[in-house]
Structures are given as C-alpha cells and as structure tokens.
Amino acid sequence: MQKTKINLIISREDYQKYEGFFYSLKILIFILIFIFLVIFVSFFIILNNENKVFNRLTDQKKFYLTALQEKKGDEAKIFYMQKKYADLKTFLKDDAFSAPYYKLLTSALKESTESSNLESFEINKDRKVAFTIAFTGFPQLVNFFKFIESETFIKNFENISLKSFSVIGNVEKKENYELSFIGKFIQLKEGDYE
C-alpha cells in the first residue's frame, strides 16, 4: 500500500495530545461564536427597539412642530389674552369700584331736582371724590342747596365740601350755574355694590 499522507507527528502520543488540544479549541471557538451570536442578536434587538422609539419620537416632533407652525396665530392671541388679563388684575387692584358710588350720587341728584346735570365725576380707590353739577335755573340751585344740607344727602359722605361755585354764560339772558364738590364717600357694604 502506498502512503498518500505524510504524518508530521512522529509519535502517536503527541498526536493524541494535539488532537485533544484541537478538539478543546474547536469547542471553545463554537462557544465563543455562540456567545458572540447571542450578544450580536441582543444588540440588534435592542438597537432595533431604540430605532423604533427614535423614529416614533421624531415623527411626534414633526407633528408637534407642524401643529405649532399652524397655531402661531393662536399663540399670539393667547399671549394677548394673558396680557389683557394681567392688565385687568392690575386695574381691579387699583379700581375704586365707582359704579355704586356713581349710582348713589345720581339717585341723590334725582331726589333733589330734575333739572340738574352731573357734569363730571372722579373717584379714586380711597373713595375720594370730585364732582361738578350744573343747573339751568336759580330756583333749582336753591332747592339743591337745601337738599345737600339734609341727612339723606350727607349720610353718603364721610366729608364733603364745596370747592367752587360758577355762573356760566348769559345766553338769551339765561344763566347756568355749576357747583364743584370734593369729599369722601362712606364705605359701602358688599350688598350695596349691586
């Protein structure tokens, strides 16, 4: 029989020793390949999930940016409303709540005479008031002087004084009279505001 292979290992014991080493090396390589395969598949699955989350968040971001671009006009309106609300809060903090005091004064004027006009009315948050009343005739003026000395009129004020008295115009021998007052209204109760 003719030899077709050359045995480089001289002794059989050395051959078995190398065969055991190569078998162990082969098993170690299979284990390493399996471990790398498990690690590779795990990283692939993790990265694939992260990529899906990233794509979903990117799509959400695009959607919100588009919605924001479409709603820029609404944002300006909301900002405007916030500013108006802040202005209203500031106004209410400094407001004198003049409507009930104005009603109080006009109803008192109606009781005194029908021919008087409230020309001006100013009040601050401390209830300090300045107002001017105009009369078309002298008898109405005299009636009003009697009325302002009555308890019905005086009870509405903590203090009141006549600031000025003016005779205005002489149109067709008809004179108009103006009385200017300054004072301070009494504090109205919560139910009096309505």
Q: How would the blueprint of this fold be written?
A:
Layout: H1 12-70, H2 72-94, H3 98-112, E1 116-123, E2 128-135, H4 138-148, H5 151-154, E3 157-171, E4 174-185
Antiparallel strand pairs: 1-2, 2-4, 3-4
Keywords: Membrane, Transmembrane, Transmembrane helix
Organism: Candidatus Roizmanbacteria bacterium GW2011_GWA2_35_19
Protein name: Fimbrial assembly family protein
CATH class of the largest domain: Alpha Beta
Oligomerization? single chain
What's the order of the H and E elements?
A: HHHEEHHEE
* Average pLDDT: 80
Strand neighbour order, sheet with most strands: 1-2-4-3
Characterize the structure shown.
With 194 residues, the chain is of the alpha+beta class. It folds into 2 domains: 11-94; 98-193, Gyrase A, domain 2, CATH 3.30.1360. Helix content is 58%, strand content 22%. The protein is built from 5 helices and 4 strands, in the order H-H-H-E-E-H-H-E-E. The protein has helices spanning 12-70, 72-94, 98-112, 138-148, 151-154; strands at 116-123, 128-135, 157-171, 174-185. It has a 4-stranded antiparallel β-sheet. A hairpin with a 4-residue loop joins strand 1 (116-123) and strand 2. The radius of gyration is 50 Å and the shape is rod-shaped. The termini are far apart. The mean pLDDT is 80.
